[in-house]
Amino acid sequence: MSEETKPCDHDACNCRVPVEQEYCSEACRLAVESQVMSGQCECGHAACQQRVRS
Ligand SMILES: [Zn+2]
Ligand SMILES: [Zn+2]
Fold first, then answer.
1. For a disulfide at 17, which of 9, 21, 25, 42, Cβ 3.0-4.6 Å?
2. Which ligand lies nearest to the CA atom of residue 32 in the structure?
3. How confident is the model at residue 50 (pLDDT cuts 50, 70, 90)?
4. Per its UniProt entry, which superkingdom is the organism in (predicted)?
5. Quick one: which ligand is closest to 43's CA?
6. Res 29: pLDDT
7. Closest ligand (CA of 9)
């Protein structure tokens, strides 16, 4: 079985999703649809948890 993945369509999101899926979560869908470009993903997944503070 080949599991193809692509990056989540939310630009600020670091998650990967199955190719037939657009977003990793409802949070990402809402962020894109409401055009909230905060530069911070709020999906809550591990890949997006780390806050860049340097
Ligand atoms: Zn994310
Ligand atoms: Zn996402």
1. 21
2. 2
3. low
4. Bacteria
5. 1
6. 95
7. 2
- The pLDDT tens digits of the residues spanning 13-27 come to 999 999 999 999 999
Consecutive H or E run containing 18: strand 16-18
Residue 48 gets the label, from left (phi > 0), alpha (psi -120 to 50) or beta, of: alpha
Please give the mean pLDDT across all residues of the chain: 87
| Cα(24)–Cα(18) distance, integer angstroms | 9
- Which tokens go with 40? 């911070």
Provide the pLDDT for residue 6.
97
Residue 19 CA to ligand 1 center (angstroms) comes to 16
